[in-house]
């Protein structure tokens, strides 16, 4: 083994040259994708925005400001993949890869500048998602819920909240919070036995009382007999604290890593399902880090069948490997949301699988 092969970056000048070429092409591809996709998206949404009385150019620009970060975050890994293929295909076409290997560099050393640059891109993507994308997701989702109209001022009312009381289920239509006071309205208690519902209690109002709830104007409907009984005021929900109802529904795309982790802990304590949120939490790391996979998956554009001259075919193979990863990643997250895969497998399984595939292809064909 040559001495040069013991160093990850045998030439600082060469590493900077390759990394700069890779970053400029990745940025160019990203800008092109954002312009095209945003134009297509605006064609469908501009009519909805302008259909609201009073909306005009300012609202269109506001929509662009909220939508562009989402497109950037979603298609940055695609841009890294295409930037990798264009860079390696250019180096291969100009016989620069042959020169590097003739100088004693291994395939991993040729890819090293791209891997380091993609790691920087992954770090920037993580910070961008944490500081910009999550806020844009929350703002745009809130705006779309009112059909691009005027967003009402923040209220302390939450809607359609569920909680578990032993084998029973509690549904609350409205949760009103006034300082330390919590009032439940439109309360429905599904009384179950052996996981089968036997009766339903409906009440107009409930307030905390001791370690339970004071249910007012309640009526019970018995499923077996069909009889309705007026209960008046009674007490139920022992051990079900107000925090079970005051915690808002959590969307993983609208929370940064730290706040989402704390929200998951609170929801776990409240007895709510958190499998999908845990998968989203891990994917906040594995998603940006997927940029590091792209040079490895796109390496076939520079290596492999380098002497056959089939450059376009090698580029297509690299793209196919990259897009196969995105399909597997989306499939894994979907399975995690359904509870089929454990959260950590749903988020990291495709990443590790395609890392091994990329390494196997690279070692098999070149090393």
Automatic annotation (TrEMBL):
Describe its membrane topology.
Multi-pass membrane protein
What Pfam families does its record include?
Answer: LptF_LptG
The protein's matches in InterPro entries, at most eight in alphabetical order, are given as: LptG, LptG/LptF_permease
Where do transmembrane segments lie in this chain? 21-40, 71-89, 110-128, 311-328, 340-363
Q: What superkingdom does the record give?
A: Bacteria
Tell where it localizes: Cell membrane
List the GO cellular component terms: ATP-binding cassette (ABC) transporter complex
Give the GO terms filed under biological process for this record: lipopolysaccharide transport; transmembrane transport
- UniProt keyword terms in alphabetical order: Cell membrane, Membrane, Transmembrane, Transmembrane helix
Q: Which NCBIfam families does the record match to this protein?
A: LptG_lptG
Q: What PANTHER family has UniProt attached to this entry?
A: LIPOPOLYSACCHARIDE EXPORT SYSTEM PERMEASE PROTEIN LPTG, SLR0882 PROTEIN-RELATED
Please identify the protein, giving its name as recorded: LPS export ABC transporter permease LptG
Organism of provenance: Flavisphingopyxis soli
């Amino acid at each position: 083994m040559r001495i040069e092969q013991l160093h990850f970056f045998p030439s600082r000048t060469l590493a900077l040259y390759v990394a700069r070429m890779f970053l400029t092409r990745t940025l160019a591809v990203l800008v092109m994708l954002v312009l095209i996709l945003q134009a297509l998206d605006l064609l469908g949404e501009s009519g909805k925005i302008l259909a609201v009385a009073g909306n005009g150019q300012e609202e269109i620009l506001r929509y662009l400001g909220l939508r562009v970060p989402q497109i950037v975050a979603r298609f940055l890994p695609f841009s890294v993949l295409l930037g990798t293929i264009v860079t390696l295909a250019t180096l291969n076409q100009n016989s620069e890869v042959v020169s590097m290997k003739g100088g004693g560099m291994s395939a991993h050393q040729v890819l090293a500048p791209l891997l380091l640059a993609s790691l920087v891109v992954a770090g920037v993507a993580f910070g961008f998602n944490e500081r910009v994308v999550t806020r844009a997701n929350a703002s745009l989702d809130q705006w779309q819920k009112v059909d691009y109209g005027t967003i009402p001022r923040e209220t302390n009312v939450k809607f359609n909240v569920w909680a578990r009381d032993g084998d029973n289920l509690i549904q609350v239509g409205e949760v009103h919070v006034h300082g330390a006071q919590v009032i439940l309205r439109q309360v429905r208690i599904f009384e179950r036995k052996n996981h089968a519902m036997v009766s339903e209690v409906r009440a107009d109002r409930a307030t905390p009382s001791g370690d339970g709830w004071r249910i007012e104007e309640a009526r019970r409907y018995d499923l077996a007999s069909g009889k309705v009984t007026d209960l008046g005021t009674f007490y139920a929900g022992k051990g079900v604290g107000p925090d079970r109802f005051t915690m808002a529904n959590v969307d993983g795309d609208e929370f940064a890593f730290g706040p989402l982790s704390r929200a998951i802990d609170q929801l776990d304590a409240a007895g709510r399902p958190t499998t999908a949120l845990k998968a989203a939490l891990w994917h906040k790391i594995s998603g940006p880090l997927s940029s590091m996979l792209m040079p490895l998956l796109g390496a076939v554009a520079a290596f492999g069948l380098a002497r056959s001259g089939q450059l376009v075919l090698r580029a297509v193979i690299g793209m196919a490997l990259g897009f196969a990863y995105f399909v597997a990643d989306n499939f894994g997250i979907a399975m995690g949301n359904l509870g089929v895969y454990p959260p950590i497998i749903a988020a990291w399984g495709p990443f590790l699988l395609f890392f091994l595939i990329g390494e196997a292809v690279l070692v098999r064909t070149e090393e």
